[in-house]
Amino acid sequence: MKVTKRFSVFIVLIIVLLTLQVVFIPKATAAKPTIHALLIIMDGDPVNFKQYQQNERWIRYLLQAIENNGVCELKLTTLRSSSDTKSPNPQRILTWVRELTPRSNDVVFIYYCGHGARNRQALEGGTYFNFTGARLYRKELVDTLKTSQTWESRLKILITDTCSVDSSITVPKEVVATSAAVDYRAAKAYRQLFVEHSGFLHVTSATEDEYSWGDSRNGGWFTNSLVRSINSQPDNMSRFVGWKEVFADTKKEVNIFLNKHWLTVGNKIQHPRHYGELPKRTNRRTYYSIFPKRNPNDVPNRLSPEARVQKVWVDHNQFQDSVKGMRIHVTFDVSNFKGKQGEVIAYFYTESGKPLKDTNGRYNTTDGNVSVGDSFQPGHVNTIYHDYTLFMPAQELHLRGKRKLKFFIQVHTGNTFSKLSDSVFFTYTGPEARVQKVWVDHNQFQDSVKGMRIHVKFTVDNFKGAMGKAIAYFYTESGKPLKDTNGRYNTTDGNVSVGGYSFQPGHVNTIYHDYTLFMPYQELHLRGKHSLKFYITIFNQGTWNVLSDASDWVYFNIYNN
């Protein structure tokens, strides 16, 4: 009897274990899709090579982040025009496409950055990519994709960052802008965009007859905006992210770049476009095991790069190139990374953990948060940096008044990242202005032009020696911004405004009793009688950070013949 009971219990336990195995194991056996990526980088260009190299950096980091987050495997091929052995040409690119044999659930990813142009006599827009002594038409590349085994893969992606102007038009000179850092933490978005979509994503940076703009530090503004739009999707989001949303965000970000630098680029027109339908969400979802099956013949790679942050400390109120800020010191060690380039990056947050938002594209991550970073290249297999420094200008935190903040450090070594350092807490006291009073004298003349003289009384603190400016923004009484028509008194988005003279406080705490602005009536671009209003905001002229809250509305009536 005892033997029978024990035997029965044993059988029950086996059944329970087998049941659990049936429930949980099958989902762990799904194979990950592979991204077959071809990067075509025209970095042999003597003018724009830095911009194209930065583009490669954004795209490469994106693909590596997708792989590092366990979403897809990655097989990466890079063709650079600076290379003697792997320089891109039409034949080499088309051969890569024809010889590729992806599985049905794989992703094919092709990226091109370099010069492009348009032949109006050719079919379907006639845009093409320039190579040394040769050109590859967009249509030929797409036709090759569609007629090869590549087209059988679930998701095909073709991204081009290139001009689409007539071939007789001179290519614009490079724009000068400022640096950015990288933050890739959008694992859920990666999975939804690259695993749970199917179709053909075919996008380019500029519509026919438009330039594609960029700079050596941000790279192509389209590539930068696309990568930031993907990485701006938080992992805790409840909604599903589609390529339609990402592309719409990308266009908005490109427009922000253009508005920031419109005085430099002159022509503010650049409209990214997509060809055909954007990829759609698949009906099936693929699950992967957190602990994948291990092949007993696999040997761990003990020589993969590794970095550890040991210590972080800060010197406040430091100056670099006459700019005030904080100097961050880091002690870290790195192994198995000799001769390669890595990065040390600081990410800034409020004390409660909310990332600080960048407003000018100078010190920022790809998803628009404040950061500062710099590169390093070890000369030994095992290297320790005892005092590696980063300088963060105070004005690049984009904050007013007194705030409690924190930052942490991360070391990037190619495909791997160090653990985050402990948070470093600090108190920031930034410049701040307060508008106390605004009044107007109407029917005034300046240089024989009739208009309104606006008077402002305001205070500004912690801004000694810096340059500021007050700006008035004009609206109808109902709140609709007045539209500029001649580009003389206007905002970057084409609304009517006027700025006063530049002011430079000589003290830590300064009061301006009667700061004036003059607005010609004719620059309101209105005829007849109108009820209008305006408000005043004060800016840091060096960074265009806002120093004050908007003033109260000031209402007035005009009658222009």
State the share of residues found in helices, binned by percent.
10-25%
Q: How much is the average pLDDT?
A: 83
Number of strands: 27
Distance between the termini: 112 Å
What does the main sheet amount to? 7 strands, mixed
Strand proportion:
35-45%
The number of helical runs is: 8
User: Unreliable runs, pLDDT <50, ≥5 residues?
Assistant: 16-30, 167-184, 284-301
Highlighted features:
single chain, 561 residues, alpha+beta, 5-stranded antiparallel sheet, 27 strands, 18% helix, globular
Itemize the secondary structure elements and their pairings.
Blueprint: H1 2-24, E1 34-41, H2 49-68, E2 73-80, H3 90-99, E3 107-113, E4 116-118, E5 127-131, E6 134-137, H4 138-146, E7 155-161, H5 187-194, E8 197-204, E9 214-215, E10 219-220, H6 221-231, H7 243-260, H8 262-265, E11 273-274, E12 280-281, E13 306-320, E14 323-335, E15 342-350, E16 371-376, E17 382-393, E18 401-413, E19 416-417, E20 424-430, E21 432-446, E22 449-461, E23 468-476, E24 497-499, E25 509-520, E26 528-540, E27 554-560
Parallel strand pairs: 1-2, 1-3, 3-7, 7-8
Antiparallel strand pairs: 4-5, 5-6, 8-11, 8-12, 9-10, 13-14, 14-17, 15-16, 15-18, 18-19, 18-20, 21-22, 22-25, 23-24, 23-26, 26-27
Helix pairs in contact: 6-7
